[in-house]
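Possible regression after last week's pipeline update?

I re-ran a chain I had predicted before the update to compare outputs. Posting the input and the new output here so someone can diff against the archived version. Not blocking, just want to make sure nothing changed silently.
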Amino acid sequence: MHSSKRARKITGTGGKDKTVVMGMLERGGEVRVSVVDNRRKKELQKQVREHVEVGAAILSDELKSYEGLETDYQHAVINHAIEYVNGNVHTDGMENFWSLLKRGLHGTYVSMEPYHLFRYLDEQAFRFNHRLDMNDGDRFRLAVKHIVGKRLTWVELTGKVEETSVN
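New output (post-update):
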C-alpha cells in the first residue's frame, strides 16, 4: 500500500475498531471462545478464573494482561519474539484455531456483522471440537440434533421488524 493511502486508511494501532475475542484450549480437549469487552487484565483474568480450575497449568503468550495468574495457576509463558516452542510450552493449538477461524471469516463468510460474531465463533468452535471424532455428515446430524425445537426469528436475528405487505 502506498504511504499516502496507508496514512489515510490506517489510523491508530492495530486494535482500533476491532472486536476482542478470547480463546482457551484444553490440550487434548475442547476450545472455548467468546467475545470480551476488552483485553485488559481484569477482563481476561476473570474469564480464565471462570473457566479454568485453580492449580491447572496455563500456557500463554507474553500479553501483560496474563501477569498475576501464577498465584493460582502453573503459568508458563512463551515469548513469540524469541521462540514459538520451548519444550511443552507453546500456543500452537490455539494458533491453529485462530487460523481456521480467520480463514472462515475472510473466505467463507466474507462480510459479517459484529453483532453476530458470537454465532460465528460458536460454529467454528463446534467444528474444531468435533474435527477428529466424526465426518462432516455425522457432524451435521449432531448440529441439527442440537437445534431441534429451538427457533430464531427474523427480528431476533436482524433486530429489524418485518414489513407487512398491504394488498
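Follow-up from reviewer: compared with the archived run. Strands lie at 20-25, 31-36, 57-60, 74-77, 85-86, 89-90. Marking as no regression found.
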